[in-house]
Write a structure and sequence with these properties.
It contains 25 helices and no strands. By secondary structure, it is an all-alpha fold.
């Protein structure tokens, strides 16, 4: 009787354990629970249950959860670049445990014309480069070169060249194959510091093959790169997928602009997009416009000066005194109000100190304003002066606010803004 009870207990325990594991791996709760537990510093009860399992079961559950999460992202992606990127992430994650499915996903990128021309297709296509192990698809060096040639942006080309080289390194191909792969770079030179390593590779492989002439040619390109001192910024390389789409849209807007005002606005937009990604290009866009007669008399010229106000990321920033002098020169009161607001927004964007805000707004309390809309700026001045512990300015601003509130003869410039 005792033996039967122990046997039943073992059977019951096994069934319970297997049922428990089956519950944990049910697809309906994996993403919502396992992944949440992994991300959280304080695991939920589900996470504690998973931790209680033997290591191999725990790893299996976590793998399945990640599998489902990446697959869902792949299936739900709508934009081509995002979808192709998600396809690579999924296929790369499952390549060891689910090789056949992984190979199919990589091959799908190569076989689908829309996917193949994507900015992110190189990730998957590089895995297929000379890959005889994938029974669904393999790419020749020429086919991979065709893809690189079809890419628009130099940072994408750089990453594609890198991915292909990494693939060849993993395959341990000969020096000649490496050169076959890299030789287009000798014809279409990429004079960026980011590409110096490729020309170094050409030197190395050419030297191994006793090709002294090619060694010298690659050396000259490297000297040219060194002299140019130009590189693709990492922030451009790592920019979100939609960055280049927005960049192209701004470029198109600039090209089709039919007034100086619209061209100026689009150029400022493009430069703002580039800040912290490629400050050099942003500066090259803005600085030449500053003294250009075509734009000086534009109604939105203040937007350019405001964007350059104390902007350290441009080579020739607009000083506080220059901007305040420009505002004083304006005759249109609405433009003047807009210029004060644009300057304030710029200082907010660059995280200026409270004292800097005080210096910017202080001219507004030198005399009573013409219009009641200025009260909002003086209220900001009082707040910033208090933060800067400038009691004298804070008091003067408070007195000015009181005077505006009590003087009903001060009109509104825009009656609709009345509060």
């Amino acid at each position: 009787m005792k033996i039967r009870w122990e046997k039943n207990f073992v059977i019951f325990s096994s069934v319970f354990f297997l049922s428990f594991v089956a519950y944990l791996v049910s697809e309906g709760i994996l993403r919502a629970n396992t992944l949440a537990a992994v991300k959280s510093d304080q695991p939920a009860e589900y996470g504690r249950l998973v931790d209680w399992l033997p290591a191999k079961y725990k790893l299996a559950i976590e793998y399945r959860a990640k599998y489902l999460d990446l697959k869902e992202k792949m299936e739900k992606a709508r934009e081509t670049d995002v979808r192709v990127d998600a396809m690579f992430n999924f296929a790369d994650y499952i390549k060891v445990k689910d090789k056949d499915e992984s190979d199919q996903v990589f091959a799908e990128v190569a076989k689908n014309p829309e996917y193949r021309k994507s900015r992110r297709a190189y990730k998957s296509l590089a895995r297929l480069l000379l890959n005889k192990d994938n029974k669904y698809q393999s790419l020749s060096i020429k086919e991979y070169h065709d893809h690189i040639d079809g890419l628009t942006w130099d940072e994408d080309k750089m990453q594609a060249w890198t991915a292909g080289r990494n693939q060849l390194n993993s395959l341990r191909v000969s020096a000649q194959v490496h050169l076959d792969y890299l030789m287009p770079l000798m014809k279409n030179k990429m004079i960026y510091t980011n590409f110096d390593t490729f020309y170094g590779n050409i030197q190395t492989h050419a030297n191994n093959l006793k090709n002294a002439e090619l060694v010298e040619e690659a050396k000259k390109v490297r000297e040219e790169i060194k002299a140019a001192k130009r590189g693709i910024p990492n922030n451009i390389i790592q920019a979100p997928l939609d960055f280049r789409k927005r960049y192209a849209e701004y470029k198109a807007d600039i090209a089709k602009a039919d007034t100086p005002e619209s061209k100026l606005s689009s150029t400022i937009g493009l430069a703002s997009l580039l800040f912290d990604k490629d400050n050099s290009e942003a500066s090259q866009l803005l600085v030449p416009l500053r003294d250009n007669p075509e734009y000086v008399n534009c109604t939105n010229y203040y937007m350019l000066l405001a964007r350059m106000l104390l902007e350290k990321r441009v080579t020739k920033q607009v000083t506080m005194a220059e901007y305040q002098q420009y505002i004083d020169s304006l005759t249109d009161e609405q433009t003047k109000l807009s210029a004060w607001e644009a300057g304030f927004s710029q200082l907010t964007g660059i995280k200026a100190s409270a004292a800097t805000f005080v210096n910017y707004l202080k001219p507004l309390i030198e005399k009573e304003p013409k219009y009641r809309e200025y009260r909002q700026f003086i209220e900001r001045l009082e707040k910033k002066a208090t933060e800067a512990k400038d009691d004298a300015t804070a008091t003067r601003a408070a007195d000015m606010i009181k005077s505006i509130n009590e003087n009903y003869d001060i009109p509104w410039l825009n009656p609709q803004s009345r509060i």
